[in-house]
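Batch manifest, entry 17 of 40.
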Amino acid sequence: MKNFYLTTAIDYANGSPHIGHAYEKVLADAIVRSRRMEGIPCHFLTGLDEHGQKVQETAERRGLAPQELCDSVALDFQNLCRRLSIGYDDYIRTTEQRHKTVVQNLLQQLHDAGEIYRAPYRGLYSTRAERFVQEREMVNGRWPDDIGEVVEVEETNYFFRLSRHREWLIAFLEKNKNFVVPAFRQRQVLEFLREPLNDLCISRPKVRLRWGIELPFDPDYVTYVWFDALVNYISAVGHGTEAFSQNWPADLHVIGKDILVPAHAVYWPIILHAVGMELPRQILAHGWWLAKGGEKMSKSLGNAVQPLDYAELYGPDAFRYFVLREMTLGQDSNFSHELFLARYRGDLANELGNLLSRLVHMVHRYCGGRFPAAGAAGEEERHLQNLAAETVRIARGFYGNLEFSSALESIFSLLKAANRYAELRAPWKLAREEGRTSELARALATLGEALRIAAGLLIPAIPTAAETILQRIGAGPVADWRNLAWSDALAGAEVGDEVILFPRVEEEDALSPL
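Output type: structure tokens
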């Protein structure tokens, strides 16, 4: 059985992790965890893009060899993944030999097929984007921030015949309408393709740039960093080996909207088509996180979010929950400290954490630390059971459609209903009244089962907290949503120690509002 193969964009080794990197990893990790909960085997790839002019220049300014800089940055990004519970299966670095070999083989194949030619060229070059740009990319007469300063360059280079495949790509996109999601992003790609394509410069002369993969057919040149980087999706899973078909084609490329066009939606499909390879099945282009007021986050503006600061102070699951709950897939979203605290205190601490604390405390106090059997269900219990079953169905559907915000909203509706049930049944009152033992047992068992099902559904978003909940209520691991149904499985289960799942953070210790 082929794996569900998911990739993220590989991060560039010229900077430190920011909220965009963190969100993309969390989103990808949540997608993979949700697929595994459906019994689907997965392979999750992320990594680091280590070549290019900016890396070379940054290393020179710091008095480092480029590889030294990359090794340091790789540790930073791997630590981000570790702290945010990102369970990738492989971490590809483009300086690895397994990657270089595939890049050079692909270049040679394209060259031998007549898809690459050598020619002089004069054009506008963006160092920030590390590519030649066209005037039509200007917005209101100005270059956008991701392009930055542009200079005119004249030199001889090697070019990939991108233009000859334009009509094929248009036809492919018109036939495969869900190749890029959300749908409006695919329309942006088709809009880009309305204009003629220039051939793609896939080399840089060593007199200008030495930090790259050497062209196999001309040792005086290195490979353009974007061609190099895109190939990671096949080099990491053994292109050219028997194991390759276990993963390829990729089921989902998860990337930011800023690198959709032209890199992932134009260059990459055409490169694969030119060598006769199957294309990835889908590309997901997510939006950006903006500061309060809708302005782009920037270190220079002092409004950038440091994801590890939030993960350190509030816990990685709190950060994961916030970014998955707040962002509608494909759209931009705002990150404010106040909004984060509202989710932390309202959803996580009150609805989820408080329910767990009260339930464990009551089972210890009233039942000797073990869940009682539920007995016959009454109307309120049946209502909660039906809601739980419906939540499982709805949440699985939302997860399958990559609608994480909606999935989490539905799960927390179940938790809110469980808290209302607790107030209605008031087990603390039932425990004080004679002859109401069976009602007390039914109430505690019902709350336990509702919490078990909610925790199982929360595994993709907040895996550590979900596991803690299941352990504290004495439940076994929820390994498969296909069997997640209401039962009396907790009867006799021993609860663990009481725990504050999402503790209060004192104001003086809190992060400064953005």
